[in-house]
Amino acid sequence: MLSFAVARSCGRVPGCSKRWNAAPARPPSGYLLFSMSSTSGSAAHPVRKAAGAHIETVREFLRGLAADAGVHDADAFARQLQMVMMGSIVAAYAGDRDAARRAKEIGLLLLARAGVRTGKGAQA
C-alpha cells in the first residue's frame, strides 16, 4: 500500500526516517473510510466527523514531514500529497495494482518541485 511506499522512500528525505519511526501507530486508511464518510449524510454525523478527524491527523503528519524536509509551504504540500495518497487508495480499491508506485512517482515530483532533494544525494 502507499504507506509502505512512503515508508520505504522516507529515508531519502532529510529527517523523515526519524519522524516516521517515532510516529504513533495510525488506524489504517482505505476506501472504507471514504465510502462511510460520504454516505453518512450530515457533516455532524459521528462517522463523518471521525473520518474528517482521521484525514486531518494524516495531513498534520504529512505537514510535519514536509516542514522537516524544508518545504516552504508545508500545508499546501501536505494537502497535495494527501490528495495523491487518497486517490491512490481509491485506485487500488478499483483494481490498480500499481497505484502505490504511481502515487510515489507523483510524490517524488512534488518533492522535486518543492526543492527537496531525494535519492542518494540527500542526507538522511
Topology at a glance:
Elements: H1 2-10, H2 16-22, H3 31-39, H4 46-68, H5 74-93, H6 99-113
Helix pairs in contact: 1-6, 3-4, 4-5, 5-6
Helical content stands at 55-70%
Helix/strand/pairing class, anyone? mainly alpha
Question: How many DSSP E strands?
Answer: 0
Overall number of domains? 1
Radius of gyration: 15 Å
Low-pLDDT residue spans: 1-9, 24-28
In whole angstroms, the N-to-C terminal distance is: 23 Å
Strand content: under 5%
Characterize the main sheet: none
Number of helices: 6
Shape: flat
Please give a structural write-up.
The structure is a single chain. With 124 residues, this protein is mainly α. It has one domain (2-23, 30-113). It is 67% helix and 0% strand. It has helices at residues 2-10, 16-22, 31-39, 46-68, 74-93, 99-113. α1 (2-10) packs across α6 (99-113), α4 (46-68) packs across α5 and α5 runs antiparallel to α6 (99-113). It is flat, with a radius of gyration of 15 Å. The model is unreliable at 1-9 and 24-28 (pLDDT under 50).
Short synopsis of the structure:
The chain has 124 residues and is an all-alpha fold.
Describe this protein with a few key phrases.
6 helices, disordered N terminus, single chain, 124 residues, mainly alpha, 67% helix
